[in-house]
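Quick illustration, no need to memorize.
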Amino acid sequence: MARPRTRTKREDRDRRPKKKVSILDQESVEWIDYKDVNLLRRFMSERAKIRARRVTGNDAQQQRAVARAIRIAREMALLPYSVRQVTHRSKGKRGDRDGGVLRDFPRDPRPDTTEGVDLGGESAEGMPSTDVMTDDDVLLESAPEAPPVDDATDDAPVAVEEGADAEETS
């Protein structure tokens, strides 16, 4: 039976990833201004989320200052709260009902349609049919009837009601 191999300190040191250096330290930025949108965008993801410390390399104090500046810039509408993303799903992912197969043929008509079929006074469910009023029917019924127009009285003067600002027409 083989002995389990133990790691040495040197192997551990070699395994450790290189520490990420902050953009603020590289460019020797002392003050983070909320109006410096180009700098703040570097600390945001494509979806307008604030990047984590381990990603940016900021220390805790720098991260607080960056987050505060981003929040103020969002309130002042200099930066977006979120970015509209177009949903793009590859085949076979969740939400793909037909398994990624695209439909090249037309769909079959729905079986419950009864267009052009005489049901003998009954609807598709076997219930007696009822007359349905459309919006046009309601408008026609609620509109007041206009008085009949007589062509012979077109030249007659029109009576004007009291208090009206209309002039007499001849």
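Residues 17-75 form a domain with the 30s Ribosomal Protein S18 fold (CATH 4.10.640.10).
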